[in-house]
Design brief:
single chain; mainly alpha; elongated
């Protein structure tokens, strides 16, 4: 049986990853629509989402180390 807390943390990580991918996709599309190639410039939300994803990943690692659950 899975750990509900760990399942919630993993769900948050998946959601943040999806949001980040969506923001990057929209940024590329916007640049292409304006006629300029996408140069890898990030969106305003990219650093925030990456930080949030990193924090959740750290929480997952701490939880696994503390509880030993899978």
């Amino acid at each position: 049986m899975g750990c509900p807390e760990l399942d919630e943390l993993r769900s948050q990580a998946r959601e943040l990853g999806s949001m980040l991918a969506e923001k990057l996709r929209k940024s590329r599309e916007l640049n292409e629509a304006n006629g300029s190639p996408w140069s890898g410039n990030h969106t305003d939300y990219e650093p925030f989402l990456k930080h949030q994803l990193s924090a959740v990943t750290g929480s997952i690692e701490q939880h696994l180390a503390k509880h030993g659950c899978e």
